[in-house]
Amino acid sequence: MSGISGETGYAFVGLENLHNDIYPAIAAQQTSSLHQPGKVVLITGAGRGIGRAIALQYAYANVASIILCARTASQLDEVASAIKTINSDIRVNKYPIDVTSETAVAALAEDIAKKEDRLDILVNNAGYSARWTPIHLSEPSDWWRSFEVNLKGPYLLTRAFLPLLLKTAEKTGHVDVVNVASIGAHQVNAVASNYTMSKLAVCRLTENIDVGYKDKGVIAVSVNPGGVETELASQEIDILKPCKSS
């Protein structure tokens, strides 16, 4: 554990024990009990990194429909093609969208309600981190952007889709809201205040969603995906370098 500060949040497992890729217990192509036929899934931040991997795993899980949301249309095209290669029967809808736009999110929810008339799983994965720097050197609008994407985004998506989620839960028994959090939610970091605070906030948002709607069948969870070298992480987070896949 040499060199790993207790305040990073990594000390309790050690960098060498952090997962950085899909492993058999969570690989739908290897574990049939993970299959979820008939379900409709929406994923934000689906164009790359963790969001892309989530989308492909749902393809292996034989869901009925995957709704891909991200800012970059070309990335969505690539992920949609990869899904069809895995399972050509899956319906795929692509939406280039800014998750911080209330108008855009409302229009998305309206369109999905018309096209699918159900939503079983909402994955709020889109994320952002401002440049890692001490607070006195930070740029206010960029610092706040982390809260716009990491907190306001999941709030807007959940708010807009709750009517459809509740409607689906009445028929199926339960639906899921999955908010992708981070070990950063449990960190105190002198240069990453924007990221750690926004991820802590999304964990509390998740708890509030769950306590407010679980009796109606809406189950909300937040997930720490592990030490994954995504494009976002590799920009600033040197601590993740030992987690690179070989």
UniProtKB/TrEMBL annotation:
<comment type="similarity">
    <text>Belongs to the short-chain dehydrogenases/reductases (SDR) family.</text>
</comment>
<dbReference type="InterPro" id="IPR036291">
    <property type="entry name" value="NAD(P)-bd_dom_sf"/>
</dbReference>
<dbReference type="InterPro" id="IPR002347">
    <property type="entry name" value="SDR_fam"/>
</dbReference>
<dbReference type="GO" id="GO:0016616">
    <property type="term" value="F:oxidoreductase activity, acting on the CH-OH group of donors, NAD or NADP as acceptor"/>
</dbReference>
<protein>
    <submittedName>
        <fullName>Uncharacterized protein</fullName>
    </submittedName>
</protein>
<keyword id="KW-0560">Oxidoreductase</keyword>
<dbReference type="Pfam" id="PF00106">
    <property type="entry name" value="adh_short"/>
</dbReference>
